[in-house]
User: Fold this.
Amino acid sequence: MNAVCENELALEWAATVNSKEAFEAFVNRHMKQAYFVALGLVGNHEDALELSQEAFARAYQYRGTLNTQGKFFPWFYQILRNLCFSHLRKRQHRQTESLDGNPENPIEVQAREGFDPRVLAEQNETTSRLWRAIGQLDEKHREVIILRHFQNLSYDQIAQLLFCNKGTITSRLYYARQRLKEILDDEKGGPCV
Amino acid sequence: MTCRDYKDLMMAYLDDEVDDRQRKAFEGHVAACRGCSEELAQFQRLKTLTDRAVLAEPEDRIWQQYWGNVYNRIERGLGWMIFSIAAILLAVYGGFKAIEQIVEDPHVGLFLKVVLLALIAGVAILFVSVLRERLFFWKRERYKDVRR
Assistant:
C-alpha cells in the first residue's frame, strides 16, 4: 500500500503520541513520505526537509484538534501543504521584491531558482526541464501532478487527501497536464511533447 | 457523448482509472476522432516523460538525524511558549508596580497622574473592545468547523 495513504485511524495515532517514544516511532514511520511530498511541492531538498520537520512539530502541537473519528494522514497532509504553500508565497514575494523593476516573471524565476533538478535521481536535460516546468505550475495543479506521478496515488486517494471528489481531481489533472505541455512547448519554441 | 465528455475520460484512461466499459467507449471514440486521438498521443508522451523523472533518496544521515531535528523543534516551541507567557506576566507586573509607584509618589504632579491613569483606561478599553469583537466574530463564524 502506498505510504501516503496508509490511513491509520486518528484515534490510534492520538493514543500513541502521548509518549515521546511512540511519537518518535510515528515520525520515523512517516518521515520519508512527508519529505517527498514536501519536496514535490517546494522543489528543493533544504526547504522540503525543514518544512516536513516543522509539519511534524505542528502536528504534535495541535494533536488535540484532530478529529479522532477521521484518518490521520489527510489531517497531517493539510498541515504540510499549508506550510509548503505559505512558504512558496513568501519565497515568491521575496523574489518579486528583489526583482522590482526587472521584467522577469516571478513564477518563472521561482521555478528556476526554487525547483532544483539536483533532487532528481537521474538528471538530464529532459528531466531537468520537466522539473522546472512543474515548478511553474500553480499550486493546485502542481499538487495533483506530484501526488499522481511522484507519489503514485490513485484518484480516490488524492481525492481523500484533498477533501474533494474524483471528478475534481480528473479535471484538475487535465488542466495541469495541459499547462505542463504548454510550458514545455513554449520553452522549446514549438511542440515537444 | 461529445469530445468534451471524452476529455474527462482521457485522464482516467491515461492513468488506468477506467473500467472495461469506459475503456471500450473511449477507445471507440479515439479511433474515430482525430482531435482526441492527437491529444491523447501528446498526453501519453508527457506521461512517459513524467514517469522518467524520479526523486532521489537523500543520504542515510538525513534520516538518522530527522527525529532529533523534529524533537528540537517541539522542545524549542515549548521553550518559546513558556518564555512568552513569562515575559508577558513580567511586563504586566512590572508595569503595574511602576504605575503604582508613580501614583503614590507625592513628588509627581496630579496632572501627570491623571494623564497616566487616562492612558491606562484607554488601553484597557481598546483591549476589551478588540477582544469582544474577536469573540463576536468567532461565535458567528459559519465555517469555523469546516476542514480546509
User: Anything to note?
Assistant: Helices of chain B lie at 3-14, 20-32, 34-52, 60-104, 110-140.
